[in-house]
Amino acid sequence: MEKSLIHNIFKEVDLSEEKILLLANHLTKVNCKKGELLIKQGESVSNKYFIYSGCLRSFFIDEQGKEHTLQFAIKEWWISDYPGYFQGRKAIMNIECIQDSILIKLTKNGRDILFNNFPELETFFRLKFENTIASFQKRTIASLSYSAKEKYIQFVNTYAEIEQNVRNYHIASYLGITKESLSRIRKEIAKGDS
Amino acid sequence: MEKSLIHNIFKEVDLSEEKILLLANHLTKVNCKKGELLIKQGESVSNKYFIYSGCLRSFFIDEQGKEHTLQFAIKEWWISDYPGYFQGRKAIMNIECIQDSILIKLTKNGRDILFNNFPELETFFRLKFENTIASFQKRTIASLSYSAKEKYIQFVNTYAEIEQNVRNYHIASYLGITKESLSRIRKEIAKGDS
Fold first, then answer.
1. Contacts with A101 (C-beta within 8 Å, 6 or more apart), sequence order
2. B62 to chain A, minimum CA–CA distance in Å?
3. B80 to chain A, minimum CA–CA distance in Å?
4. Digit-coded pLDDT (tens) for A112-141
């Protein structure tokens, strides 16, 4: 894998040539086509993915067959089914490329080897996890106290780059509203209603 | 602080006498009375807490003055407002002792010193964070797909020890239902309705 790509992923880490080589041995570049499923609900999970370009979506299908979008992941984010990746359980969600994407794959086994040989990487991921946990708490509070319109505005601010490229039913399912409500909210915002 | 207490908190870590001393210097035992607030919405956050005994609750108050219970934390859990603790923001929630509790406090500063001197501790917290992230994903899916009754059953399974000691309005607010619905669900379960 290109050295520049490794610097891009681990930009917060001071990387020696030796460390770059070690990382290159345990990371794999993956091209993923729009519509492709990387992780499937009920199956084993071996990988987490860094998004170099493109966009992914995680969703789960409930017992009634209804789809719920949990998260979108854009450039420079990591994504996986974490009960699967961290705890060896079966995936509780699906992860799908919603645009043609270039991803960097890190297997569980590769990760263990890296952690054993490269303590700075443990710090790197510990800091990422702290931000993830803080974001989860913020999102939980937002989901309880924001109106659908406020949630949509937060979505646009977080995912500014992808809003135009994501299907309306994905956005509506992420916000927990109908497509009709999404359309009404957009019209209100376009008209400048507060 | 007692050596046995440190072994209890860090039971997954191989501790030398020197490491125990270092930990003892950066952890503080705190007695917290029922009703006491440890973290207040809008204020700075300096500490995270390990629950040695007792029970804590995190909640936030929305713009309409309505209280939402986010989490209960019981024996051997860690709790804090993480946007505050990890990212230096103002607290987005309150954390309250709902029983007289014995807590072990870890300051941000103490934590930084420990991480710098004690790499095994970084692994210890990295693993805790992985479990936290996996739990958040599971809880998000449960909140989208479970009925109120299923959520209550999951609550009872998770918090078996405290269910009898927590006020009904805390449980109802955690489940996002009214006290009347909670009462109805309990009656259905007592009658053995499926």
1. A31, A32, A51, A52, A53, A54, A55, A56
2. 6
3. 10
4. 999 999 989 999 999 999 999 999 999 889
Q: Which of A133, A41, A46 minimizes the C-alpha distance to A96?
A: A41
Compare CB distances from B141 to A92, A126, A140 and report the shortest one's residue: A92
CA distance A106 to A111: 6
CATH of the domain at B60: 2.60.120.10
Domain span including residue B26 = 3-119
Residues A11 and A62 in one domain: yes
A105 token code pair: 């794959």
| Pair A64, A96: CB distance under 8 Å | no
Name the CA radius of gyration of chain B, rounded: 18
Q: Is ipTM strictly over 0.85?
A: yes
Mean pLDDT by 10 residues, chain B (194 residues): 90 92 95 97 98 95 91 93 97 96 96 92 94 92 86 87 82 90 93 72
Interface test with A, best of B81, B123, B136 (most A CBs within 10 A): B136
Per the domain annotation, does A22 fall within a domain?
A: yes
Which of A68, A129, A145 comes nearest B126 by C-beta?
A129
